[in-house]
Amino acid sequence: TAYNGPMANESNNKWDGIIVGASLATLDADSGYGGIEDGAMAWRGGCIAWVGRRRDLPGAPEELAREVVEGDGWITPGLVDCHTHLVFAGDRAREFEMRLQGASYEDIARAGGGILSTVRAVREVDEDELLRQSLPRALALLADGATTLEIKSGYGLDFDNERKMLRVACRIGEQLGVTVRTTYLAAHALPPEFAGRADAYIDEVVAWLPRLHDEGLVDAVDAFCEGIGFDPAQTRRVFDAARALGLPVKLHADQLSDLGGAGLVAEFGGLSADHVEHTSADSVRAMAASGAVAVLLPGAFHVLRETTLPPLDAFREHGVPMALATDCNPGTSPLQSMRQAMQLACTHFRLTPEEALRGATVHAAKALGLDDRGVLRVGQRADFVQWAIRHPSELGYWLGGRLARAVYAGGQRHLR
Ligand code: NIG
Ligand code: FE
């Protein structure tokens, strides 16, 4: 381990903090958990300054750091939720009941429910109220270990309401002190005022993007490429607009049918293709060649009672990294825990707990284009979680419960 430490006797040069007494799942290896038993990890200026075995520390912890934290259990990198729609108003519990009685997601969407019912709810509330309703979901994700959140627009579907959603997403990051990456998803559904005029709506989507980007509200661009969403030609126009601004793209791809969405992501050198239940072998090969991440969303798979599995073996065989996310949204995935997403991925997709943890950390960071987090390594952000577990595989095992003992983002502690 590189020594990046302070001189023990220069107190102003000490590390900000050090945690000892826990094992570390660094994930800093091509396979395995990168485990270090009886480890120690120090941070300074929001970044990891030292990682290794406690007995290899260059001095006594209290001489090396201003704060010494006694941990136990295991420490992992902070979890990264790389696909959420957690900014919304209201809920769709009634629609859930209708689906239990036999209505399909598509039936409900075509009848003006689904995404559009959340659009009505979002348009009705002001920015502060939207924040008030959304913040508890972000807090729940943080409390269960997520220190980076991606948040999409897509329930506004007009300039002012898309802007309102993206502003709320940014305010969540400021209020919680975690990284929020915003994604522009105006091409999520066709708003009623554009019924029958999807291409004209895409003209607007393309026109709003540079204005929102100018305000610093957009980190990436997404679309819903689906029979009940937008077709590949329309998606391509949205992607072209992103490319013109140098913004990375990602896509709701091949969730309910194969429209070649994941292949389109690969063609544009995009960050990720998400859902991907119906992705073809050709698209998997294209993703492997382009370096796109497959973002698996087991919450939506579970709630929609899907039966078509993503092409997991093909992803493995071609070395396409698989990330996990909650897809936290009121319709298809009212899921507010990354750990629960990991459990669902292990159960439904037979991911190993190790794949699930990598999917929730390293690969999820890659799906957001972030290379400063996802593993415990000197120089990475000091985003980490201390868990009350005996082995990291428990993170993919327990359903519910409270396992996160402490959550640190940028070296700041969030749970007491
Ligand atoms: O990721 N598929 C489209 N978007 C969301 C669902 C949004 C909603 O139903 O409100 C998804 O599943
Ligand atoms: Fe989604």
TrEMBL record:
GO terms for cellular component: cytoplasm. Its cofactor is Zn(2+); Fe(3+). Catalyzes the hydrolytic cleavage of the carbon-nitrogen bond in imidazolone-5-propanoate to yield N-formimidoyl-L-glutamate. It is the third step in the universal histidine degradation pathway. It comes from Lysobacter spongiicola DSM 21749. Gene3D superfamilies: Metal-dependent hydrolases, Urease, subunit C, domain 1. The keyword Glycosyltransferase does not apply. Its EC number is 3.5.2.7. Fe(3+) binds at H83, H85, H252, D327. The keyword Cytoplasm applies. N-formimidoyl-L-glutamate binds at Y155, N329, G331. This is Imidazolonepropionase. One of its GO terms (biological process) is L-histidine catabolic process to glutamate and formate. 4-imidazolone-5-propanoate binds at R92, Y155, H188, Q255, T332. Zn(2+) binds at H83, H85, H252, D327. It catalyses: 4-imidazolone-5-propanoate + H2O = N-formimidoyl-L-glutamate. Keywords: Cytoplasm, Histidine metabolism, Hydrolase, Iron, Metal-binding, Zinc. InterPro entries: Amidohydro-rel, HutI, Metal-dep_hydrolase_composite, Metal_Hydrolase. It is found in: Cytoplasm. One of its GO terms (molecular function) is iron ion binding. Belongs to the metallo-dependent hydrolases superfamily. HutI family. Residues 74-389 form the Amidohydrolase-related domain. Binds 1 zinc or iron ion per subunit. Its main location: cytoplasm. Pathway: Amino-acid degradation; L-histidine degradation into L-glutamate; N-formimidoyl-L-glutamate from L-histidine: step 3/3.
